[in-house]
Amino acid sequence: MSSREMENVSKSSKLDFKDLVVSTKSKVLLKNVSGSASSGDLLAVMGPTGAGKTTFLNVLAGRVSHDSGTITLNGSPLNKTHRRRLGYVLQNDIFLSNLTLWETLYFTAMIRIPDKVPKQEKTEKIYTIVNSLGLKKCLHTPIGDIFSRGLSGGEKKRANIACELLTDPDLLLIDEPTSGLDSSTAHTLMVQLKNYATEYNKTIVATIHQPSSQVFNMFSTLLLLVDGEVAYFGLANMVIEHFASLGMTCSQHYNPADFLLEILTPDLNTRDNEGDIKKTHSLQVPIGQLNGGFVTESDKEEGKGPADVPLTLVRSCSDVKIVNDSYIVEGETTRRWPTSLWTQFKMLNWRSYKQSKGRILHTFDIIQAAFIAAFSGILFFQTENSVNTVRDRSGLVMTSLIYWSFQMLITTLLGFTGERGVVSKDRSAGAYRLSAYYLSKITSEMPLLLSVPVLYNTAVYWLAGLGGVDGYFVYLGIGILHCLMIQSLAHNIAVLVKDVRLSMMVGNVIILAGLMLGGFLNINPPDWLLWVKYVTLVHYPYSATMTYILKDLPDVW
Ligand SMILES: Nc1ncnc2c1ncn2[C@@H]1O[C@H](COP(=O)(O)OP(=O)(O)OP(=O)(O)O)[C@@H](O)[C@H]1O
């Protein structure tokens, strides 16, 4: 990442975390984790699986609250304003699957880089980052998901990093940047991240599983966690020496990362007296007593060991020349959102339309609607307008209402579920207001959601000969209102019920109960349930449509 214009050199800063404790009801996830990272550093967090690495990053990012301990930036507690200058690349790559990589980056740039930055500068920034992360060849590839192929795992990981780099964060947290990458790509990526940290004076904290020796040698500082406890914190290039001083020697030419993980990974073959698996390590020293490391070269020369030196890094920040204070200027840091409500609404509308188009106007759904419309047309073709056909026409209207009730419910619920993770990620990054998202969701999806029902109702109305032109508009209008009611019911269910299967179940029960108690399938419900029909979503559309269709048959009434 050598392009001068790509990032701005950040002000020097020092992040300290001291005695962090995180626990759940049943388990302590982090136990007195302490350390620090200065701008320009690449702090690697290593440890066996389940050691608490992700929990630690979540705490720094403010996504998980800590029971005790402090996190400070240049001595003052890390607050929301500081966290706005923080980028967090999650372990899972959460994206909207139908957007291309370019569209994803474009959206991020437009919504997370302040409005005052010209559009051209934002797009140039995208190209610079894409080039430096080797993503140029897949710029117009859809992100994809388990149903439709798109970016590879490694490309998604780099896309995730690219999105965060766009915002030019001072502190970048990355969970497993190299997972899913081949060793050469992993090495290149780590070189890029290291250069980014040193050239632009950024602080990078990355959890990493099994780095190669070359990658390991790039780390400035190392935090080793085991079962939530610090096994080592200090300069990465002194960890081997430190463990050697404790009697654990790494052979020459052996990957230091492998050596560390081997001695720190619990030996699951050990069983206690009852025969249950016991968690033990092949360490000769309890984890708590391993804590700390040599901090600087001079400490080492002075013969200071882990117990003698405070857990601070002595990298001098004052020698870093500050070009400018990145995109954030005085006053900007206190603003809640990087962009205006209008920009948020416009961009969310754009993204939602792109994501939802393929899902809502799916070929199968169109074929299904065409088939049902054709079948209804054949069955009820030019039904005579007489008392004898009232039941037929009532059946046709009811079939349409039932069909669109379930269709709208499923389409809306699935749309919400697919986006929940992305919205939660965006909102954690402080990207936009929830109101902007909700408004844009409704306005972008409405034309898509209504287009097929409009065509369906048009075909059915004229094929079945339900009336004239005025009746057609009434029929269509009621159909549209019914779809909108179901859409808002689905929105409410989706907000209240996170589990998609449960939300479908709740929606199905509400609609079916509405059909049974709507006052036309069962006309003699128990007295105490008579009121329910007035709150069902099908009672009014059905009654209104039938009233209009049968208005010329006074005998019916
Ligand atoms: N909400 C929770 N309730 C109970 N236990 C939890 C919770 N969240 C995490 N854990 C447990 O805390 C431990 C640390 O989890 P964490 O995800 O931080 O580990 P990790 O070091 O990042 O693991 P990996 O390398 O496999 O990603 C794990 O044993 C996990 O099962």
UniProtKB/TrEMBL annotation:
<feature type="domain" description="ABC transporter">
    <location>
        <begin position="15"/>
        <end position="252"/>
    </location>
</feature>
<feature type="transmembrane region" description="Helical">
    <location>
        <begin position="502"/>
        <end position="523"/>
    </location>
</feature>
<dbReference type="InterPro" id="IPR003439">
    <property type="entry name" value="ABC_transporter-like_ATP-bd"/>
</dbReference>
<dbReference type="Pfam" id="PF01061">
    <property type="entry name" value="ABC2_membrane"/>
</dbReference>
<feature type="transmembrane region" description="Helical">
    <location>
        <begin position="360"/>
        <end position="381"/>
    </location>
</feature>
<dbReference type="InterPro" id="IPR003593">
    <property type="entry name" value="AAA+_ATPase"/>
</dbReference>
<dbReference type="GO" id="GO:0005886">
    <property type="term" value="C:plasma membrane"/>
</dbReference>
<dbReference type="Pfam" id="PF19055">
    <property type="entry name" value="ABC2_membrane_7"/>
</dbReference>
<dbReference type="Pfam" id="PF00005">
    <property type="entry name" value="ABC_tran"/>
</dbReference>
<keyword id="KW-0472">Membrane</keyword>
<comment type="similarity">
    <text>Belongs to the ABC transporter superfamily. ABCG family. Eye pigment precursor importer (TC 3.A.1.204) subfamily.</text>
</comment>
<dbReference type="InterPro" id="IPR050352">
    <property type="entry name" value="ABCG_transporters"/>
</dbReference>
<dbReference type="GO" id="GO:0140359">
    <property type="term" value="F:ABC-type transporter activity"/>
</dbReference>
<dbReference type="GO" id="GO:0016887">
    <property type="term" value="F:ATP hydrolysis activity"/>
</dbReference>
<dbReference type="InterPro" id="IPR013525">
    <property type="entry name" value="ABC2_TM"/>
</dbReference>
<dbReference type="InterPro" id="IPR017871">
    <property type="entry name" value="ABC_transporter-like_CS"/>
</dbReference>
<dbReference type="InterPro" id="IPR043926">
    <property type="entry name" value="ABCG_dom"/>
</dbReference>
<protein>
    <submittedName>
        <fullName>ABC transporter G family member 14</fullName>
    </submittedName>
</protein>
<keyword id="KW-0813">Transport</keyword>
<keyword id="KW-0067">ATP-binding</keyword>
<keyword id="KW-0547">Nucleotide-binding</keyword>
<dbReference type="InterPro" id="IPR027417">
    <property type="entry name" value="P-loop_NTPase"/>
</dbReference>
<feature type="transmembrane region" description="Helical">
    <location>
        <begin position="401"/>
        <end position="418"/>
    </location>
</feature>
<dbReference type="GO" id="GO:0005524">
    <property type="term" value="F:ATP binding"/>
</dbReference>
<keyword id="KW-1133">Transmembrane helix</keyword>
<keyword id="KW-0812">Transmembrane</keyword>
